[in-house]
Design brief:
Layout: H1 15-33, H2 37-42, H3 44-59, H4 71-88, H5 93-97, H6 116-126, H7 133-143, H8 147-168, H9 172-180, E1 186-189, E2 196-200, E3 205-208
Antiparallel strand pairs: 1-2, 2-3
Helix pairs in contact: 1-3, 3-4, 3-8, 4-8
């Protein structure tokens, strides 16, 4: 005779809370034990942990979905990204590679994408054994071929875009499009109906976004009697 066993569904792991807690605990330890930048430079292990937890925490967030009401959350994320950059600039590229190795992708260069050789080329411009420094840290992270670092950089740019919209009313891309003479549109989502609209700031008009009909569906004309 068979007995039906009830299996409890697995709980989803809250990685955001895990990495956020790990980052803040490590940062608190750093603040309590280290008083100067020189001490932080010497404590490579603590610096690497802060970078690792900070990159992992910011990288898994959904920063592109932030709304105007999420200002405090966005400010907190921005603070973390700035701190991570401050820690990263204290390391050399060789030391950074021990935290996040370069992705072993050797063919993306043919398609104009970052790959292993591209990253190595950019590292050599700085010097693999030289301190990254404040002048190179943004470009270094941007050119670095690693999925987790890439997610961190994308979310960092999303946060910058968010603050530009909240504080200035437009995004950096909108400014660039205006300078180049291109028309730019913004997608607006109604929080009640969840319908999306194209907003043209020049004409101040909103046009409903029409979802394409899937190929496997056919529109039948006619009605029911």
């Amino acid at each position: 005779m068979f007995k039906l066993l009830k299996i409890k569904p697995k709980k989803e792991v809250d990685y955001v809370s895990i990495y956020s807690s790990a980052y803040r605990t490590t940062l608190d330890r750093c603040v309590k034990s280290i008083t100067t930048v020189e001490e932080l430079k010497e404590n490579k292990l603590l610096t690497k942990r802060l970078i690792y937890y900070g990159v992992k925490y910011v990288g898994i967030l959904e920063c592109s979905d932030l709304r105007i009401s999420d200002y405090n959350m966005a400010k907190d994320i921005l603070d973390v990204t700035q701190m991570v950059k401050s820690f990263a600039m204290l390391l050399t590229p060789n030391e950074f590679m021990t935290i996040f190795p370069i992705r072993k992708d050797y063919k993306s260069g043919k398609f104009g994408c970052k790959d292993y050789f591209y990253t190595v080329e950019k590292i050599n411009e700085i010097g693999a054994g030289s301190i990254i420094g404040s002048k190179n840290v943004d470009k270094f992270l941007w050119d670095y071929s690693n999925d987790e670092v890439c997610e961190f950089v994308v979310n960092y740019m999303s946060i910058i875009n968010y603050f530009c919209k909240v504080e200035k009313g437009f995004s950096p891309l909108e400014v660039w499009c205006e300078e180049q003479g291109f028309e730019s549109y913004v997608i607006y989502t109604d929080e009640v109906t969840k319908k999306q609209y194209w907003y043209d700031k020049d004409s101040n008009k909103m046009t409903p976004v029409k979802q394409p009909i899937p190929r496997y569906l056919k529109l039948i004309k006619g009605g029911c009697e």
